[in-house]
Amino acid sequence: MTAHTGPGPLRVVAAMSGGVDSAVAAARAVEAGHEVTGIHLALSRNPASYRSGARGCCTVEDANDARRAADVIGIPFYVWDLSERFHADVVEDFMDEYAAGRTPNPCLRCNEKIKFEAVLERSLALGFDAVATGHYAQLRRAGDGTVEMHRAEDHGKDQSYVLGVLDQRQLAHSLFPLGDTPKAKVRTEAAERGLLVADKPDSHDICFVADGDNAGWLREKLGERAPNDGGDIVDDATGEVLGRHDGTYGFTVGQRKGLRIGRPAPDGRPRFVLDIEPVSGTVTVGPHERLAVDRLTCTHPRWCGAAPGLLRGTVQLRAHGAELPAVVRVDGDRVEVELLEPAYGIAPGQTAVVYDGTRVVGSATIDRTGTAAGASPQEEQR
């Protein structure tokens, strides 16, 4: 269950989202002999504005589901209101990043700032030893005593990417009871334990976007920050203005649909967003091959243990993306990634998570992209 070692059972806070994974994780923590208290995070200052129904993860319905699961398991249960901090550290960050022309991942930021910083700090202050969650990842104690995080046995459900922001101290006080179990078996186990969430659908998309329309949500929230006259959509090859838009926040690098250009390229092939320049409001579009990059410059690294210096391993650039072979060079807060095969549609603001085999080494935020042969559209525009 955990790499934590020590005498006797642990006092554990089980973060219960209201879904099947966190409920089974809490039950397993109890079964392992730990003294467990369930908590649900109230993250919305106005619950009606966040996702509702079975697809949410922080709604009133989810809080009720979590409470019922805690009752079945037989553990105390509390709701912790972290809505103000969530809004400041996750929602505002999400808006600021899009306003700056970058593409953030709010789930990583939530894990970093809320679940494994705010929750863990409060738990330790209250005398607890660890926080258990339903994430699919594995913890192992290395020979030198450090805690390593590895991919889950079920690679299809592996969530180590969104946990790549955790440092050694956070890992040492974490439990991931589901890391060695396929998701199908977790659902079966939930039903056998009498947990009503056994068949509850997994949560998807961004929890604070109520209808799943990210672009519409950003338009509503950021419209007042955008230039009154929007900006141009420009062809990468010719510089021709192909259309106008209301705000750069409605676009992300690699986007194909919703460009509203009105006509295809002369060769009939689709166009993709290659670059977003929020100051001028210019969105540059072009062919798919222009999305290829094999060089990344990253900042704000967070290492699960010691910084690697030089590593030949793999990187993952999206939550459900493939691993790409890479050479990673670290110099202080600057991380240079040489991809040994090209990646497509990679945007500044995304996170590169570094792996050595199945072990998560750490992560860094992509600041610039390019190619060994020449500059990327982002570099050319800037």
Automatic annotation (TrEMBL):
Disulfide bonds: 110-207
A single MF term (Gene Ontology): tRNA-uridine 2-sulfurtransferase activity
Domain tRNA-specific 2-thiouridylase MnmA-like central per the UniProt entry, residue ranges: 222-286
Subcellular localization: Cytoplasm
UniProt keyword NADP, yes or no: no
EC number annotated for this UniProt entry: 2.8.1.13
Keyword annotations of the record: ATP-binding, Cytoplasm, Disulfide bond, Nucleotide-binding, RNA-binding, Transferase, tRNA processing, tRNA-binding
Domain tRNA-specific 2-thiouridylase MnmA-like C-terminal: 294-366
Pfam families, sorted: tRNA_Me_trans (PF03054), tRNA_Me_trans_C (PF20258), tRNA_Me_trans_M (PF20259)
Residues the UniProt record annotates as site (Interaction with tRNA): 135, 350
Residue numbers annotated as active site: 110 (nucleophile), 207 (cysteine persulfide intermediate)
Catalytic activities: S-sulfanyl-L-cysteinyl-[protein] + uridine(34) in tRNA + AH2 + ATP = 2-thiouridine(34) in tRNA + L-cysteinyl-[protein] + A + AMP + diphosphate + H(+)
CDD domains: MnmA_TRMU-like
Lipid metabolism keyword on record: no
Annotated segments matching region Interaction with tRNA: 157-159
Amino acids binding ATP: 15-22, 41, 134
Stored InterPro entries: MnmA-like, MnmA-like_C, MnmA-like_central
Family: Belongs to the MnmA/TRMU family.
Function: Catalyzes the 2-thiolation of uridine at the wobble position (U34) of tRNA, leading to the formation of s(2)U34.
Name by which UniProt lists this protein: tRNA-specific 2-thiouridylase MnmA
This protein's encoding gene: mnmA
